[in-house]
Amino acid sequence: MKIAFIGLGNMGGGMAANLVKAGHAVNAFDLSVEALTRAQENGCATFTSVRDAVDGVDAVVSMLPNGKIVDSVFETDVLSHAPKGAILLDCSTIDVDTARKVTADAVAAGYDMVDAPVSGGIAAANGGTLTFMVGGTDTAFARAEPILSAMGKAVIHAGTSGAGQAAKICNNMLLGASMIATCETFSMAEKLGLDLQTFYDISSKASGQNWSMTSYCPVPDVGPTSPADNDYQGGFATALMLKDLKLAMEAAQSVNADVPMGARAAELYARFDADGKGSLDFSAIIQSL
User: Fold this and answer.
1) Interacting residues of 180 by C-beta distance below 8 A, sequence separation 6+
2) Which of 35, 42, 139, 161 is positioned for an S-S bond with 103, CB 3.0–4.6 A?
3) Nearest-5° angle of CA 243, CA 241, CA 180?
4) Residues with active-site annotation
5) Burial class, 227, CB count within 10 angstroms (exposed 0-12 / middle 13-18 / buried 19+)
């Protein structure tokens, strides 16, 4: 299958490389020359315009920074330029309303499309072990699933258009709040004189166990290797967590959902980002406690 991949950042670069490993021919586009060079080294054909990249392909995958860019790229450069039989997959994390608009525009132009945001971070993108939450029709999902499976370990149909984004926003609100609670707990345990490895051994097998603790511990040298063991470099940047929490707050307001823990997490990450820590992994928020 010939696939255009638009957006080769920290996540997209690894995802495109895994499509090549799965045997697909990948037309890669990004504004960064460095990203295009890496893509070429990974076996992609590279292009300096989206329209050229989508010419003659069977599928278009995008991984872009925000909804405004997604809407613009699809409206200007993908719709009516990619072949009508191509399946369109947007893996960016954007707001639900924009996801639904872009899909509606695509359907009106004669395309099948899904919103398919990801969970797993840079390591999972590189390793092909992402989880995809997919919104779209049954037909669009069936067409998109084999492509997504080449980049991930789990591909889950969340519902109709926009449902993938809704699932991602809810999941990351939970993740942001649980990471802060995990950080608070380790900080308090240390001040109470507990050995942190011993506390981990206890809590990871008790009722306090959670993913932020056992898979992504915010304390160096405790639990499996995580960004905490690399001075909080790599992983999932604080700025990106804040972006997702802001999307969650907008979504909550739009449906009148009461989310006090999510709102507090958004406030704390906004403060941490404002302190110049936006490039650090989101687990580095333990430094603020």
Assistant:
1) 264, 265, 268, 285
2) 161
3) 135
4) 168
5) buried
Instruction: Answer with the one of 141, 160, 179 that is the final residue of a domain.
Output: 160
Q: CA 158: distance to chain centroid?
A: 15
Nearest to 254 by CA among 133, 156, 165, 123: 165
Number of C-beta neighbours around residue 20 at 10 A: 19
Instruction: Specify whether the CB–CB gap between 45 and 72 falls below 8 A.
Output: no
Domain boundary among 102, 126, 160: 160
Partners of 27 in beta bridges: 4, 45
Determine the average pLDDT of the residues in 127-136.
Answer: 97
Tell me if 187 sits within 8 A of 289, measured CB to CB: yes
Is pLDDT of 137 > 90? yes
pTM value? 0.92
The answer on 37 and 58 residing in a single domain is yes
**What count of Cα atoms within 13 Å lies in the side-chain half-sphere of residue 264?**
7
CATH code of the domain containing 170: 1.10.1040.10
The domain in which residue 35 lies consists of 2-160
Residue 274 is given by DSSP the state: I
141 and 57 within one domain: yes
Give me 87's structure tokens.
């399946």
How far is residue 140's CA from residue 168's CA, in Å, rounded to a whole number?
A: 19
Mark whether 50 and 187 lie in a shared domain. Answer: no
* Pair (141, 175) in one structural domain: no
Model pLDDT for residues 89-109, shown as the tens digit of each residue: 999 999 999 999 999 999 999
Cβ–Cβ under 8 Å, residues 136 and 120: no
